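Checklist before submission:
- one chain only
- standard amino acids only
- sequence pasted in full

Submission:
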Amino acid sequence: MNMNPFIAIAAGCASALMFASIISDALISLLLFYLAPLPLMVAAMGWGPACAALGGAFAGASLGVLFGPSYSAAFVLTVALPAWWLGHLVLLGRPATSDTSPQGVDAAPGDPPPVDWYPLGRILIWIACFAALTTTAALLTLGSDASTIADTLRRGLLRITNVRDTASGDRASEVVDVFVAIAPAAAATIAMATLTLNVWLAAKVTATSGRLRRPWPDVRTMTLPPMALVATMVALALCFIGGLPAILAQIVTACLMMTYALVGFAVLHTITLTMRNRGLWLGSVYAIVLMFVWPVITIVGIGIADAIFGFRQRYMQRHTPPPIVPKS
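Returned file contents:
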């Protein structure tokens, strides 16, 4: 895949402008900030990871000159590095053998050889790693221990509430304490969701333009590595030890739980294939999750249960018609 330096620089400039727009304090700048990796991801998937690397380096250097080394480092860590590596993983593949090819047969003469593409579930794990890394880096800028981080968050939220009377102040303080407790997990969840959205949008844009080499995957068949469940359980247990390790464990747990939430939605899309009014059922589930948020815990449970019991595999075995055997 040939790298286009003009595309690289254009993508880098777009990402840098979207990232730097957060200093304007405009509401739209928050959306642009979260979508900052998108141009570099499109460059990586359409013109190769080297294109995203060049664009990210140019953008990071430009931000360093204009705003200082801290802005440059933040951009490289949260935008350029994930865009480059995730774009590389999307295009990563190896020649498939007859045992690993989806059809289980050799390709016909003249056809391109089948390719084993990097599994979608493993890409999700990498997204979770980057989301945890960026969230951890952001929290560590507030302090080096749990009490300092909590106090900094609490002061900032109390300043935002700006209450006057004592009664309202007491209620606001209680609410702030709750937000401080859930802030690390909430920030990690947002980072995981937005980074996943960026990868999906970049793949859609690249596929629409005809430059995506990888065929569009069947998301319903997405599975996570077996060790992901072990890591989730270990991180969940570490959430109760207290201190800074507990905060870091909450971040990792939230990111991994989000991956299982996505698997849970894939399970729902699979087991509703034969249902009447399937669109209505799925739309209702998405609407409930978006409105109340907490029902996502049920979706996470479905994803974890599928990893243990294999609901989708059993469903497809029952509903897939047997192969047609030609008469002799």
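Reviewer check: The beta strands are 93-95, 115-117.
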